[in-house]
Structures are given as structure tokens and as C-alpha cells.
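Query form — protein VWA domain-containing protein

QUESTION: What is the three-dimensional structure of this chain?
INPUT:
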Amino acid sequence: MSHPHTHLRPGTPPPPAGAADWRAWSQAWTQHVPLLTGRTDLTVLVAPGAAGDAPECFYPALNRIEVDATYIADSPDVTDPAKARHKRIVPTGYGLLVHGAAHAAHSRWTTPPGTPPILATVADLLEESRAEGRQRARRRGDRRWLRHVVTTLLHPDDAAVDDAWHAGQLAALLLARVDARIVTSKDVRPVRAAVTGVLGRKRLRQLRDIWREAHTCDDTDADTMICLARRWCQVLGIDPDQQYDTPVPDAGLFPGRLAAALVDYLAVAAGVTPAEYATALLAHRHSPPTEWDRTDPTEQEHRAARDLANRLRQARTRHTEPGRRPSPIPPGRLRTRHAITADAQTAAGQMPTAAPWQQRAQLPPEKPRLHLAVLVDLSGSMARYTQAMSSAAWIFANAARRAQATTTTIGFGDRTTVLVPPRTYPRQVLHMRTELATATFPEAVKVADQLLDLRHGRALRMLAVVSDGYLDDIPAGQQLVTTLHRAGCAVLWLHPADPPTDGEPADPDQIWGHTFTHATTLTVTDPTEAIAAIADAAVTALTQA
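ANSWER: The C-alpha cells for VWA domain-containing protein are given below.
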């Protein structure tokens, strides 16, 4: 889940646990916040889980700033918050306090009653850079700390798909901060290029005029902020009188250039490569639960991994294709330097060793590489398959190591879980557990694409899904399957022959036995048959490549 964009909340939040351990921080920052805001009626609460589901939040009704302590440190004794030097030790945590102080000092307007939610959302997006810009203008030194938290307040889900709404959202959250003089234009150059590619130069220029006008608004001018939000929607082609709610990303679309540009920006800010940042994000969001059991592989599993590796190695094609090789005689392309060398050797009475001609020869091509993603349904109706597919995940991963293939196994249910990441070779078998739903199938397909680049590349790509097809969002799943099929990725669907044990589904959108188009569907009667079908399909694909 992405961080909320608005850091101003009405109402009274529940008290977070662990506040007592961080009481010294709360007291020190409460004493310090008047210096940041010019207000003496504010309190600061620091605790793990504070600020709801955001890193930081300001509650105007309570005159309280809350900061999630997990963004400061693991332990409150990391430094003394009463000492001035503490801000250099925890710059992100202190930056969150400054961000909250910016809202407390300058976000003094409230959304008028009856405002459509989409207008309120846009106004809140514009308020982010407006409040920070006012804070920087009043206290120039605070820019240093606000820069530290821009990446904390952003999330790759802010650019989930390449549509006008999300491009505008990214522009408001990041590009507008350039004009607020929080970040530089050089910092956001890749993001600006991606936003321009989606919106076009004209619309982006119109949006920039809007956020620059917002930066000049008075701290209490709610009417102007809502008017600017309406203009923003009109530029994006949205009628707020017809579409009241904030647009949500289409679950059937893969992330595009917006998400890639945002990941690049966040990775540079974190001092890592985009691949390292994406890997860390996936590990944070999709790691297996700690309560899942691990066991040592059996001798049968070791033997199965060896057998599959041998089959994959033998299946890799060896067709010849034209190459180049030197030759002492024609035909071919004359290489002048080598011809002169050969003449000199002959004139000296030596046996010529230079090869003046370059001929095309039949050389073996590069062997195809297999990228295989296995998705396992973890709903209750698939309980009989989870243990066998857990074993299969270990077998596929260790067979791939010997056959120069790349595999990953992903479970989808209430959440998406990466059981075995690519290019990892687990020593133990991790046993999946069934869950209640299959709400995350579209997310699991997107994670598989992110890990193995199923829509691009020269590798032989395959997606195998072990599921009864009893899914929560079939249209989105079908859209993703179709996209992979058109991109050249083979989709294999292993469908159990048995019906669900707890009766027929009542929801018409959840169809038992649904068959996806653009996928090869096989009906299997037991888990071992599903494992064999995936292995056979991989071997056949390599043989015919």
C-alpha cells in the first residue's frame, strides 16, 4: 500500500502502542516545534505506528503532529533528541517533523463542505509542495531536511500505471517541488521525461501554471485551492461533477515508464541501483511469512532436481547459424593488413600463416535461456496442491542453476508472496500455507513480470499458473494474460479436475472452472501431474526454440 498523499487528518486517531518508550522524543520535539512553526499550541507524538498509515501526519483538530518512529530508528536510544546534533543522526525522522511543521504553520485552510472527493484529493496534492515551499521561504535551512523526506513521502504505487491521472499525480508530488525549491530540476529529469511522454508538453505546461499559482495562495484561501483543483481535472480530461471519486489504477495494466522513472529517482536518492532498490522493495512487500515451515529436501526431491536439470540441458537447441572465421584462400572479404603480412612472409621464404580472407562459417548460435515463473493459488480450494508445489519450487530453482535457466515461484492469496526469488537456490523447502481469497492474482502476475521481464527480452519466457480459476478479479487477470501472450510469453494454466470442497461460489464474478483465453489450459487430477506438466512444457519449449 502506498503512503497517503494527504498528511492532514480530521478526527481523533487511536493511541499507538509503544508511545511510552518514545516519550522523551515526544517531549523534546514538542518543545522544539514552536521554533519550526511559530505556534505554541502544538504537541508532537512519536511512536511506532503513529500517523496512521503514513510516515507523518498533522491533526488540525488536535493541534498535534505525529511521526512514525520506525522512520527514525529501531530504538529510541539512537541519540538524544534534546541535543541539536540529533537531527544529523536521524535526518529522515527530523525531516518528517519539519514536513509536519510546514502543514501546521501553513495549511490553515479546510476543504469546503460538499466538495467532490476528487477535487479535495487534487487540492491536497497541490498543498504538499505549497506548504513545503512556504516553510522553506520562512526558514531556508529547513530545505535540507525536507529534501531528506521527499523519497519517504513517495512510493512506486504513486505511478502505478501510465495514465493521465497518475502522471498528473506524480507531477504534483515531485515536479511541483522543483518550483517550490525543495528539489532541483536535475533531480527529477527522468521523471519529467516520463510525465511528458504520457501527458505531452502542452498539458504539463498547463499543470505547471496551476501549481505555480497554488504556491502563491494564502494559507487560508480554500476557495482558490479548490478552483485550481477543478482546473487541474479539466486539463487531465476529468469532469469532477461526473466523476466524484479519485481514479484508481486499472488492475489489468502493467506498470510502465512512470513507475520505472520513479524507481530510478528513488534509487538514486537512496544511493543504490534501480535493480537493488526494486529487489529491496519486493523483499519488504512480498517476503514469505515467518510462520511458514522449512524442511530439508528429501532424496527424492534432490533426484527430481537433477533429472529436470538434465532434461533442460539436453533440450537447449544447437541449430547452426552463420558466423565468421579467417581463411588463407578466397572466397570472402579481403583483409588488407593480413594480405600484406602474408606477402611479406612469402617473400621471406616462410610458410605464410596470415589469413587474408574472412569467410562466413556455420557456428552454433547462443543457446536459448528459459525464464519460468510459477504462480500458485493459495486459496482454500487449492489446499491439496500447496505442499506439492512448495516442493516443486525447490526443485525448479535448483534445476535452473544447473541448466542456466531462471525461475521464480510466487504464491497468491490474501497477499502476494515470492516463495523463491530468481537466481536464488534455497537449501531448504519452504512450505506454503493456504489463505482465504485470491484477491492478489493480478499483483502476482505483475510481480512475476517485474522479476523475469516476461513482456520483453530475448529469453524464452513462460508463465505457469496452478489454480482452479476461482479468482476475485477475472477481467483484470484476463487482460494481463492477454498482454503477456501478445508479448510472446507462453501462458500455461494447470486446472485441477476437482470442484471446490465448500460448494459453488455465490458471487457471479467468481466463476468455478473459468478458462482464460490466450492460455494453454490443462486439467490435472493430482499435484504431481501439475509438476510434471510444467516440466514437460518447459522442456518442449526449449526443444522447439
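ADDITIONAL NOTE: Confidence is low (pLDDT under 50) at residues 504-510.
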